[in-house]
Amino acid sequence: MKKEEVPQDKSNLSKSNMKELCYATDENGNYTTALSSGWEPKTIALEQSMLEINERIEQAKEDVKLGLVSPIVYFMEVCKMDWMTLSGYVGMWTWRVKRHGKPSVFKKLSNKLLAKYAEAFEISVEELKNYKGE
To answer: Taking every annotated instance into account, which residue ranges of this chain make up the domain HTH cro/C1-type (predicted)?
Structure first.
């Protein structure tokens, strides 16, 4: 794409006065960089993915409220993590972290272990322990 053809559509980037760096060709055909305020297809894809993330957060909140999952699942969704990512942050096997997603197992976790999760989620241990899906 030529430098003057770099998309400048309205997007979430333009709302925050941010620009995205793109590669384009100049008048001599050489690669150069150009700033873009947005590109409609990309904006649509990002908005769709954010809607899906928000739906998963709401579902996790409801599941915590109903006692189906532990608060770990909710905060994992809020922080846009999956089981493997979270296990990397807390330094545990993925199967073990998934197990901590069960309310019965979560209730038995030590404060030391809860502190690892709280640090990964950037919240306090008390906030993690006391979250009931409100």
So the answer is: 107-128
Whole-angstrom Cα distance, residue 88 to residue 94?
8
Handedness of CA 58, 63, 66, 72 (dihedral sign): negative
State the pTM of this model.
0.76
Domains of the chain in sequence order: 3-38 (no CATH), 50-130 (1.10.260)
Three-state SS string over 41-84 comes to HHHHHHHHHHHHHHHHHHHHHHHHHCCCCCHHHHHHHHCCCCHH
Q: Over the stretch 32-53, which tens digit does the pLDDT of each residue have?
A: 888 887 777 877 888 898 899 9
